[in-house]
UniProtKB/TrEMBL annotation:
Protein name as catalogued: Pyridoxal-dependent decarboxylase
Family: Belongs to the group II decarboxylase family.
GO CC aspect terms: cytoplasm
InterPro entries documented for this protein: Aromatic_deC, PyrdxlP-dep_de-COase, PyrdxlP-dep_Trfase, PyrdxlP-dep_Trfase_major, PyrdxlP-dep_Trfase_small
């Protein structure tokens, strides 16, 4: 239809509802729309000079309140213009070298190619009859990673939405396996057994909060997670684990599982699997390795040995959207023996009937907590096939090496910075320090440092608490970040810190 200038005919030029459906009939407008969106992204990234804009929720809320969802805009350009102000201008940009806050990685663009393909084909990997090759690609990746862990043929796994879901799966399987083996009780069909409130999970005092969340979701409650003391490097202390187990036994509680974090969120520390695994065997405990962060070392050329003995775990969480440079979401739960996946499974007549399994038809929903599920494996597949595993490992290695350089430099040069630990991976917990300042003043000073840097958009740093005191945290995942950029961030920390605590350096003025 020819465009005219009258509003009525402009409206008529907007595709009707069916024309918006993606099919062979929509290829030209689809390509035009995709290239407009890609241009927008390219423009944004080429102009993005800071990781954040420092926008406040109230400011953005004002923009959003002007959006009337009942009134669609005339064309994609207008839609993207609106998105520019409601989202793009103020988004947080993880690719920027001054982004040093949370475990968000810059992403590799082969994965973005995969996102275009998986988004367009819209495969759901729950059953073979909705996915075909996608199911086999996911399974191939799972098998390959199980081999990298060092497990034998009977290992298996499934892609998940993230480390939180993977940890939940690990503890769900641990609980149901324990109840079946020790109490002759099937939780899946009968619910929790009497006395389930006595079941206990052991995790280090700096383990991820998703362990407690999982315990609550599993009907055991936060109190079922026993925090085990760490050594000075924030690694679970095997002796403390033994003591905690004996203590539970004395209290008539029932040890069920140990979560050994491989790369803690704050310190990047590794709970020592070579020492923890024999204790788990002795006490008949499920050993879950939360390698959501440290799992990236599976592809490392330099630091793989830090994951020593991971093959002794019963199950493992790995997050490809952390240390494999993949877009959110991309994650996996892996386990040593595929038999145990039965605790997560369900056969629905309409979807994955038992006869399918008997006929060897692979329905991944058999082993997932989700039903409809994105083909997230494709981005990792494409990244591996295009870049190769060494290149992905090299990106993580560079971030780890940078972190050690930053640590060495800060220890040698920065008198007013208190560093809490040697880096285990690519994080550093520290705070601006002044000998005359009280703990409360230091907390407030470091809080202000982070807030001001974020508000000005100069550097994005994280904050955490250790022993009740406020600290700052660097998380480095960007292989292009240079030492001098980190030195600039530290100089900014020191400058704001000194300004904030300046009164402590001056003699008190006499009262008039
Ligand atoms: C050690 C650890 N485990 C689990 C998680 C949760 O992962 P996700 O955010 O992918 O759910 C995180 C997140 O930072 C983590 O650091």
């Amino acid at each position: 239809m020819l465009m005219s200038t009258t509003p009525a005919s402009v409206a008529a030029a907007t595709p009707n509802a069916e024309q918006f459906l993606f099919s062979d009939q929509a290829l030209l407008p689809y390509q035009a729309a995709m290239s407009e969106a890609i241009q927008r992204v390219c423009r944004q990234l080429s102009q993005q000079t800071k990781p954040t804009s420092g926008v406040t929720p109230a400011q953005l809320q004002q923009q959003l309140q002007q959006v009337d969802l009942t009134q669609p805009l005339a064309d994609l350009s207008q839609v993207l213009d609106e998105l520019q102000t409601t989202y793009l201008n103020d988004a947080v940009y993880f690719h920027h070298p001054h982004y040093m806050a949370h475990l968000n990685c810059p992403i590799v663009y082969p994965a973005l190619v995969a996102e275009v393909i998986s988004g367009a084909i819209n495969t759901s990997v729950d059953t073979w009859d909705q996915s075909a090759g996608a199911t086999l690609i996911e399974q191939h990746l799972i098998d390959w990673f199980c081999q990298h862990i060092g497990w034998a043929q009977q290992a298996d796994g499934i892609f998940t939405s993230g480390g939180t879901q993977s940890n939940l799966m690990g503890l769900l399987l641990a609980r149901d396996h324990f109840c079946e083996q020790q109490l002759d009780h099937c939780v899946k069909t009968q619910g929790l057994p009497a006395g389930a409130g006595r079941l206990r999970i052991f995790a280090s005092e700096v383990s991820h909060f998703s362990v407690k969340k999982s315990a609550a979701l599993l009907g055991l409650g936060h109190n079922a997670v026993v925090p085990v003391a760490c050594d000075q490097d924030y690694r679970m202390c095997p002796l403390a684990l033994r003591e905690a187990l004996h203590q539970c036994q004395r209290q008539d509680l029932i040890p069920m599982a140990v979560v050994a974090t491989q790369g803690t969120t704050d310190f990047g520390s590794f709970d020592p699997l070579p020492q923890l695994a024999p204790i788990c065997r002795e006490w008949n405990l499920w050993l879950h390795a939360d390698a959501a962060y440290g799992g990236g070392l599976l592809l490392s050329n330099q630091y793989r040995q830090r994951l020593a003995a991971i093959e002794l775990a019963d199950s493992v969480s790995i997050d490809f959207h952390k240390s494999f440079f993949q877009p959110v979401s991309c994650s996996a739960f892996l386990l040593r023996n595929r038999q145990w996946l039965k605790y997560a499974g369900y056969h629905a007549d309409y979807l994955n009937p038992r006869i399918d399994a008997a006929a060897g038809i692979p329905n991944l929903v058999d082993k997932s907590l989700q039903t409809t599920r994105r083909f997230d494996a494709l981005k990792l597949w494409l990244s591996l096939r295009w870049m190769g595993p060494n290149a992905i490992g090299e990106l993580f290695d560079k971030a780890i090496t940078l972190t050690q350089q930053v640590y060495d430099w800060m220890s040698a040069e920065c008198d007013d910075i208190e560093l809490l630990h040697q880096p285990g991976l690519s994080t550093l917990v520290f705070r601006f320090y002044h000998a005359e300042a009280s703990d409360a003043q230091l907390d407030e000073c470091n809080r202000q440092i982070r807030r001001r840097l974020f508000d000005e958009g100069r550097f994005a740093l994280a904050a955490t608490k250790v022993n009740g005191r406020g600290y700052l945290k660097f998380t480095f995942l960007n292989a292009t970040t240079q030492l001098d950029q980190v030195q600039q961030a530290i100089a900014a920390v020191q400058q704001i810190g000194r300004q904030t605590l300046q009164p402590l350096d001056k003699p008190q003025e006499a009262c008039a």
